[in-house]
Specification:
The longest helix has about 35 residues. A hairpin with a 2-residue loop joins strand 2 and strand 3. By secondary structure, this protein is mainly alpha-helical. It is globular and about 80 Å long. A three-stranded antiparallel beta sheet has the order 1-2-3, covered by helices on one side. It is about 70% helix and about 5% strand. Helix 5 packs antiparallel against helix 16, helix 5 runs parallel beside helix 17 and helix 16 packs antiparallel against helix 17. It has one domain.
Length: about 425
């Protein structure tokens, strides 16, 4: 028997099993029917249980594999995933307006879920190479291309929610030496993006010009040779960015996407139209109180008032039936799992394994943050699952592969 199996992080495995089991319980609740049997594989909970068994089998295979396999074949796995994403445009099945699935024997397979695994491996392999330096433009462009390629293919499906998750790799790049100026730039872009959506454009332009002119005079006091030209260039670039955001939002975004952003930003109130899902989700969570209504006792859940409750909005079921205590327990378990992955990753001497661990933690955190924020009405509805809990075979298998690969790399730390 592989000696590394004795060094497995059993705490992470227990947390994984707890989350998946709790997910099955809540999926069962959202589709409960007294006349249905849990052995009827046409109902969601039975399908999810079947994929759980497949995930455990695949996870077992991953755990007994040689740890060097994942680093050695990372590029090949990435290439295969890219080809699968391209193949969707020829052979994919259109569901709800997105061509994101292959239909194989009546089972839908979503390659974008496995693209996260392949991209995490590819990014880890590239960044672990000796000659890579993120302070050099060439290295930054190359790793940026590795991340951007699957993102673009997924956006074209179109599935912008899943594509957004690839932004998690930015945190990996920052941890591996990306200049902090890029972080400031990112926050600046985000700030002006929001400001543009909630404030009249002339006011935004005036704010930018005033701020940069003030900065120029301040720098002039510190250095009399300070040039005005860079500040004028920044004014032009910043105002162009603001105008582009305004134009794209009002002319390229679909109306439903604009409505969702406006509701989140408090510019519109629509509890029966585009804001119905969010409103019903908040009602369900709020009605649970401290202790919840009890298993199978959720009136919002049983009445199916919340659409997609077993997938995107499963946290509303948790809030209604298990209350604040149950919701807090789920959040604590997730946070503990993510922090444990980061702790184990930081203790690894192998660069590939460490970077992969950071990628895993970042992906889990972004999914966790967006999904729960979506259920609480804090972020727009973009349709991404709660890891290990939401219904979805490809999602469960993809996240399981992500975790079990790290468990393999972590268990083999002594053979590095």
């Amino acid at each position: 028997m592989n000696k590394s199996l004795y060094r497995l992080d059993w705490i992470s495995i227990i947390l994984y099993l707890a989350l998946v089991s709790f997910g099955l319980v809540n999926i069962y609740s959202t589709n409960f029917n007294e006349n249905s049997s849990i052995f009827n594989f046409k109902i969601p909970v039975a399908k999810q249980f079947l994929f759980f068994m497949v995930s455990l089998f695949v996870g077992g295979v991953i755990l007994i594999a040689k740890s060097k396999f994942f680093e050695r074949f990372a590029s090949i796995l990435y290439l295969i995933t890219i080809l699968l994403l391209i193949g969707l445009f020829l052979f994919g099945k259109n569901i709800s307006g997105a061509t994101s699935w292959y239909s194989i024997g009546g089972i839908g397979i979503q390659p974008s879920e496995f693209a996260k695994v392949a991209t995490a491996l590819a990014v880890a392999k590239y960044l672990s190479e000796i000659q890579v330096n993120l302070k050099k433009l060439r290295s930054l462009l190359q790793v940026g291309l590795i991340i951007a390629l699957p993102m673009v293919l997924i956006i074209l499906q179109p599935d912008p929610g899943t594509a957004l998750v690839f932004g998690a790799f930015f945190f990996v790049l920052f941890r591996e030496g990306l200049n902090s100026i890029f972080l400031l730039l990112l926050f600046g872009l985000f700030f002006f993006f929001i400001l543009t959506l909630v404030t009249p454009i002339p006011f935004v332009f005036a704010s930018i010009i005033t701020l940069l002119i003030a900065l120029y005079f301040f720098s002039k006091k510190l250095n009399k040779k300070a040039s005005l030209l860079p500040y004028l260039a920044l004014i032009v670039v910043s105002c162009s960015y603001v105008y582009s955001v305004d134009y794209i939002f009002n002319n390229i975004f679909e109306q439903r996407h604009r409505d969702r952003f406006n509701i989140i930003l408090g510019k519109e109130v629509d509890t029966q139209g585009i804001g119905y899902n969010i409103n019903q989700s908040k009602i369900a969570i709020g009605s649970g109180g401290w202790e919840g209504k009890g298993f199978l006792q959720g009136t919002q859940t049983k009445g199916q008032f919340v659409p997609e409750q077993h997938t995107d909005y499963i946290f509303s079921t948790i809030g209604e039936e298990w209350g604040f205590y149950g919701s807090a327990a789920v959040i604590i378990v997730f946070c503990f799992l993510i922090l444990r992955i980061l702790y184990r990753a930081e203790s690894l001497k192998n660069n590939f394994a460490r970077i992969y661990g950071h990628g895993l933690a970042a992906i889990l955190f972004l999914h966790f943050f967006i999904n729960i924020g979506m259920s609480l009405g804090l972020v727009p509805t973009i349709g991404i699952p709660l890891p290990f809990i939401s219904y979805g075979g490809s999602s469960l298998l993809g996240f399981s592969c992500l975790l079990f690969i790290f468990l393999n790399l972590d268990a083999n730390r002594l053979s590095e």
